[in-house]
Design a protein that fits this description.
By secondary structure, the chain is mainly alpha-helical. It contains four helices and three strands.
């Protein structure tokens, strides 16, 4: 995936985190960064991830449990709550609706098959 604009990443990160936790189960911060990177969201920093996880926890979408580390520091594991599952379903529907509108307006689904920035011969 090409570079994702930082604002788009911040806006979509909670939805992506909910989705990963729903499909892959409980995980910890570093593993989530790795998984999101594998999916195409490389370059995600801990300074972006942990505040998003903290907000999801405050909102009741995820719960946290601490686990002792094997010879190292403990890890904070995140898992989805019932509220998180509900939020994921609602926000995913909203995301799909937004994607449809943006794609249509940006030319991705135009019947004229123009490309973004092409105004059908205007200003040529």
């Amino acid at each position: 995936m090409p570079d994702v604009q930082a604002a788009w990443l911040r806006a979509s990160l909670p939805l992506c985190l909910l989705g990963v936790l729903a499909t892959e189960g409980e995980s910890y911060g570093y593993a989530l960064i790795q998984r999101l990177g594998e999916a195409g969201l490389g370059g995600l920093k801990a300074a972006t991830l942990y505040p998003a996880l903290g907000r999801l926890e405050e909102e009741g979408a995820v719960e946290v449990r601490w686990s002792a580390g094997d010879g190292g520091p403990g890890r904070k594991y995140y898992h989805l709550t019932a509220t998180g599952h509900t939020r994921l379903a609602q926000e995913y529907r909203s995301w799909r609706a937004l994607d449809d509108v943006v794609s249509a307006l940006a030319g991705g689904r135009s019947s004229a098959r123009t490309t973004p920035g092409d105004h059908g011969g205007e200003n040529r």
